[in-house]
Amino acid sequence: MWAVVVALVPAGMFGVYLYGFDALVLIAIAVGSAVATEFIIRKATGKKQTIGDGSAVITGLLLAYIISPGSPWYVPLVGSVFAIAVAKLAFGGLGMNIWNPALAGRAFVLSGYITAMTASWIYPSQDQVLGELSRSGVILKPTAPQRRIDALTTATPRAAIKDEIKVAQDPDWPGWTDLKKAGARPADWLRQIRRRNKTSYKDSFIGTRGGCIGESCTLLLLAGGIFLLWRRIITWRIPVIFIGTTGLLCWALPVRFPGGTAWFAGDPLFAVMSGGLVLGAFFMATDMVTTPVTRKGMAVFALGCGIITAVIRRYGGYPEGVNYAILLMNTTVPLIDRYMKPRKYGAGR
Amino acid sequence: MPSKKKHNTFPRGVHPGDFKELSKGRPIEALPPPAEVILPVSQHIGAPAKPVVAKGDEVKKGQLVAEPGGFVSAAVHASVSGKVKAIEPRPHALGKPVQSIIIESDGRDEWAEGLLGENDIDALSPEEIREKVRNAGIVGLGGAAFPTHVKLGPPPDKPIDSAIINAVECEPFLTCDYRLMLERTADIVAGLRLIMKALAAKRGYIAVEANKPDAYDLLAEASAGYDDVDMVMLEVKYPQGAELQLIEATLGRQVPSGALPMEVGACVQNVGTAVAIYEACRFNKPLIERVVTVTGRGAGKPANLLVRLGTPVEELMQRCEASARINKLILGGPMMGLAQYTSEVAVIKGTSGVLLMTDAEEFDYQACIRCGRCVDHCPMGLVPSDLSIICEAGKVDEMMEHNIMDCKECGCCAYVCPARRPIVHWIKLGKAALAVQKAKQEKKSA
Fold it and tell me: Which residue from A117, A243, B178, B215 lies 20 to 30 Å from A153 (Cα-Cα)?
């Protein structure tokens, strides 16, 4: 378990680098309250203490990584308490929980504090902040004294593109004249729309983009994932199939516009590096407790996660679907395990 | 011959360290007969044997002291000459105390009359072979101790075409079979010929794990004259020597769930059993001794000892200069052997090893986190994680649904479990609980 903590720390440190001391406070609140909740409940119910196994720390860390950096202090607190008390211990503690506790905690605070969770995104870098301010005419030129501005809220890249597409789906949208001029086919329209509001691959890979505290740095998350693979704590199946399916479907799934439907026009690389996919696929969908035990079952689970993620992203109300995709697939695990048993020796070929 | 070539094997399983170097270089030595032997009436699978001697009787070495208690049962013979001191329950290697015949040696070590003939084994009929094996009280010496005459006498509707000598010895630490392969090579092959004859099997196989190339070469040389005997080299993997896995690796056949190997025309016999069969047929010698590996870090002088059945384990420990720091005594190997609560047990027919550990840690297990490693390694294709949880909770009704009876207790699951759960322990308890429930139901319906 502690190896997972080690694998997670770099991405969190990067989040602190991006969003400053506030992010560190949020992480500390999430981890602290997760551990404290487990300690108090185990003590109150007279059970053996289990905080030493590190799983409460992981839950706290993961929860902090998937809330927005502008969240008020009580968001990680409530999320962690719910994650540990309800999603984990109420089901019988480690090993018996049906849902990944951190994701359940996030789903809980998402429904409880919808504004805090969806409208408090922050531009991660000063350059981007200043660039945006000068573009919008608030300041003329980024100069030294003005660097005291520390934050500006923004939409995440996923939300921005989702909004853009939604706007373009209105036939009366004035941008259509330009779009139709630029591209003849619906697939090209989609590409054009994407290009108008797109985070660069470099920013997506390094992590200098809007998003949750610990989800943005693809590079460090991948490094952590590879570390877990190397330590044989996780296997390749779930992350590879999950990410692959999401990328493929985000590329392929059609988008309907007033003048036609765009097929196979998504950007798979952007799909993989945006939102919480890498974090979710390597660190949450691989949570052993809430995933199938057989290899076949793991493949089915990961495939389901990928499909649901892509469908929510494309057609759902939320810009990101990793959270609910994993939670929904967690729910199907007993069913998958029932039908995906290994072939028993001597049961006939 | 070995190395590069891809060897036959079975799916899943584990690769534990083998620790055989401790004792593999030690030739078999005979341990002098002890002053007293303890012969449990139950040293085999099946009905316990019935004592045919009484307290105070004088017995000779090799004399029948308990006759088979049924078809699936095995005779017990005096392993020393002397006087029956008592017939009473004594600690037993399998756990519960068992009624045992205790013989005080007179030190003369005299054979009973009528034994030690010299037969022409080629002249024996299949029926005579079975009879001699049955009279000798031979059981599977690999550890399971299933009565051998039963295996050699399949019903007519289940013809056996392949007899396999299990020369795998996949359990870590144990080297008793390996030493037999080196020192009794010809007798093993002769045993195989007798087995093939008794079964009317068309083909014989000698299956050796690839980590014993010297034994393989010797056996290949000794069996070279027989066109119907094949040598098979198997990948080094545990449990390669488990009966079902061995049949699959050797013949590519899977024994149907719940059936015996005869269902697919196969019969497996351990190398020690083959030697015993040879001795019984050639010299009318009953099974009164076996080779036992005494090893482990707690053994000052590890050894492969030819030991009289019923010899107290403590004598073996003394002989091998057991350390005072031993904190665990296992009879058998580390994977399937049983840890003992007392050293007052005696060597029985199925005792292949005495493992003396000085550094066995005590540890706590944790909750199952469903990582699935046990599922990846279970050679029987079960889901041990579920079984362990069900058995721990004592949910008898769900055990069958999870195929508990298909578990052969090889221990791969517990070996790979990161939460260090005693999975096999629970499965054994589960099987016992299931048997109790079954008995209750039968009582009710009767």
Answer: A243
